[in-house]
Amino acid sequence: PPEEAPPGTSAEVLVATGDALLVIDAARCEEKHVGASPVTRLAVAPNGAMIAVFTEDGTLVVVSADFENTLSEFGTGAPRDTPPRQLVWCGADAVVLYWDETLLLVGPFGDFMRYTYDEPAVLLPEVDGVRVITSRSLEFLQRVPDATVDVFRIGSTSPAALLHDALTHFDARSVKADDNMRAIGPEQMAQATMACAEAATHEWDHATQRMLMRASAHGHAFTPQADAGETAEAFQAAIRTLRVLNALRDYRVGRPITAPQLEALGADAMVDTLAAQGQHLLAIKIAEYLELQAASRRVVQHWAMAKVASNPDAPDLAVLEAVLSKLSAMPGASYASVAEGAFRAGRQRLAAALLDLEPRAGEQVPLLTQMGEQERALDKAIESGDTDLVYLVLFHVWRQGDFKELVRVVAGRPLASELFVAYCRATDPELLKTFCFTVGAPHAAAQAAFLDALEARDGGPPPSEVVAGRGAAAARRGAGGSAGVTAACRALSAASEMYSRSKERVGHARACDEAASLLSAQRELEGATGERLVGTSLADTVASCLALGNLKVALRLQRDFRMGERHFTWLRMAALVTANDWEGLDRLSKEKRGAPPGDVPLGAFVDACVDASAPDGVTKRFIARLIDPEVRAEAYERLGDARAAAEARAAAKEGGGGELLNRLGNNLLNRLGNAR
Predict the structure, then answer these.
(1) Is residue 213 a contact partner of residue 232, using CB atoms and an 8 Å limit?
(2) How many of the other CB atoms lie within 10 Å of CB of 210?
(3) Residue 313: pLDDT over 70
(4) What phi and psi, each to the nearest 5 degrees, are found at residue 125?
(5) Could you say which DSSP state residue 595 is in?
C-alpha cells in the first residue's frame, strides 16, 4: 500500500478478467465492474487513491480506489482491437496512453494533448510525472508545479511573483522594487520567501535557480523576526536539495531526477544507488554533506569491496593498506563485510587479515566458520562471551560429520566443552556418553546414565532410547514395571562404575549402588504386597512395610541401608499411631531397658498420642512416666486435665529437691544398666 494509506492496510492485487476486475488481498477476493466493456489495460495512481482502466471499446475510465465513484470518462476513439501499448499515470494528475508513435495525455477534466514520436518509446512512470525514453532521447513529462505557477504565471500577483519582480527591479535600481515589497507586506513575506525557495528546487536551469534563491534571500531580509527561523530552514533545505540535484544531473553521473523523486527515493537510497554504480566519490560527498553517517560507512565498505574485486593481481599487503587507509578513518565501518568480499574473490589471506581487525565477534565468527578457520572462530566466540556464537561454531563442525574433528576443536577449551555437554545432556545422552569418554570426562557420562535411570524408573523411556528411535518400545517396557526397574538398575550400575573412576566421586558411586539395591528391594516388595513402592524413598518404603505389619522386612531394610535407629523408631511410632496400636506403642516405648530405642524422648510419644486423639488412659500412662513434673503438668494441660496438671505443679513445688534426687537416681540406674 502507498505511504498515504492508513496503518493496517494490506496490499491488494487487481486482476482484469473478462468484463470484471478482481480485487484480491490476503483474506478475500471481490469482483468489481467498470463500464460495460471488458478491461484491457489498468494502472494505479502513485498515491493509491485512483485507478485508470482502458476498456475494449476505447474508453478511458478513472475510478476511485474503492470503485465507489467514477471520476472521469474519456473516449479515445481508438479502434476496438487496438489497446494502447502502455497505460501509465503522469504523477497523480493525468493519465498517459501510448500507441505506436502516438502519445495521448488525458487530464482530469477531459482535456488532452497529443504527442507524436517518429520512433518507438517506453514510458516510465514517476511520482510526479512520466519519463518518455526513446533510443535517442529522454524526456520528462510532468504537470507544472504550483510554486512555479505562482512565480511565473503571466499577470500573477501572488506574493512569490511580487517578490521575484521586486528582486528584478532591485537589480535594475528601480523604485518599483520598494512598491512590490510594500505590496507583499510583512504578513505574507514568509510565504513568498518559502515559495520562491520551493520553486527553485523544481527548476533545471542553474541561472533560474540562482535568481529564485536570491529572491528568497531578499525576502528573508524583510521577514518578521517571528517567521525568520522557519524561512531560514526552508532556504537551507532548498540549498541542500539543489546542490544534490545538480550533482546528480551532471552528464557524467546521468541521474536526471526531480526534487519530489529525490524525496520519495530518500537520500540514503540514492547514496547506495550511486555506490552500486561505481560513483563512490560522489556518493561519499553527498553522504557527508547531508550528514548521513551510516550511508557514509556503507559507501566506504562498498568501495573497499570493489577495490578488492577490481585488483585480483595486486599483492594482498598493498590492497590491505589501501583499504585500511579508508576504513580506519570511518568509525563503525565493518571489516567483516569487506573480508567476505575478499573471501569470495578467493583471497583468503586478505580476508583473514581483515577479520583480525573486526571488533564485532558476531560478524567475525560466522565468516571464519565459512572459511574453514574453526579453531580461530571458536576462540573468537569464547572471547566474546556469547554462548550462541560458541554453539554456532560447534554445530558447524558437527554438521560436517567429523566427530573426531569436533573433539579435537573442543579439547583444551573448557567453556566449549561444557556448553556441548549441556546440549547433549538435554537432547542426546547417548552422544554425551560417547563425547565424555572421548574427552576424558566420565563424571558427565555418569550423570547422563543417572538421568537415564530416573527416566526408566518412572516408567518412561530413557533419553538415549528416545534419541535412538526406540522410545515407543521403551515406553511399553517401562509400563510393565519390572523391565523398567531392570533398565534403571543397569543404568545406575553403569553410573556407579563411571563415578568410581574418580576418587573425588566415590560417594556418588556408593549412592548409585544403594539406589540400585533399593529399587531391586522395592520391586520384590511390590510383587509380595501389591503396593506401589518403586520410586519411593527409603523412609517411605520402610513406613509402608511397617504399616503393613511387616516388621521383619522393615528391620532388614534398616540393616541393609544403614538407617539410623532414631529415624527407624520415629517411623515405627508413626506407623503404630496410624494403626491405633496403643499396646504396641507402649511396648516400643519400653523396648530398650524401659526406654524408647534410638534415644527418642518419651515426650514424643505423648505428643503423638495427643495429636492422634488417643484414649486418655493411654496418654496418661505415658505422661506418668515423664520425669520432669513441669513437663508432666504441661502435658496434662494439653490433654485437658486441669486437676492432674495442678497436682503435678504442686508436687513440683513441695518436693522439688526429692524430685531432683529421684531423677538423678533414675539416670544413674539407667547408665549402670547400659554398662552391663
Answers:
(1) no
(2) 13
(3) yes
(4) -70, 145
(5) B
Residue found under cell 478491461:
39
Question: How far apart are the two ends of the chain, measured CA to CA in Å?
Answer: 102
Give the separation between CA 380 and CA 372, rounded to whole angstroms: 14
Torsion of the alpha carbons at 625, 631, 634 and 638, rounded to the nearest 10: -50
Report the Cα 76 to chain-centroid distance in Å: 56
Element of type H or E holding 354: helix 348-355
pLDDT of residue 458: 66
pTM of the predicted protein model: 0.63
User: Torsions phi, psi of 279, nearest 5?
Assistant: -90, 60
* Distance between CA atoms of residues 221 and 595, nearest Å: 113
Amino acid identity of residue 217, one-letter, is A
Tell me if 292 sits within 8 A of 270, measured CB to CB: no
Q: Please, what sign has the CA dihedral across residues 459, 465, 469, 473?
A: negative
Sign of CA dihedral 230, 231, 237, 240: negative
- Cβ contact 439:410 at 8 Å: yes
pLDDT at 576 over 90: no
- Mean confidence (pLDDT) of the chain: 81
pLDDT digits over 98-147, tens only?
A: 998 899 999 888 889 999 998 999 999 999 999 999 999 999 999 999 99
Nine cell digits for residue 318? 598493498
- Residue 76: left (phi > 0), alpha (psi -120 to 50), or beta? alpha
- Residues 6+ away with beta carbon under 8 Å from 269: none
Return d(Cα 562, Cα 430) in angstroms, integer.
34
Dihedral class, residue 77 (left if φ above 0, else alpha if ψ from -120 to 50, else beta): left
How distant, in Å, are the alpha carbons of 11, 25, 200, 248, 267 from that of 241?
32, 38, 10, 11, 10
| Contact between 378 and 393 (Cβ < 8 Å) | yes
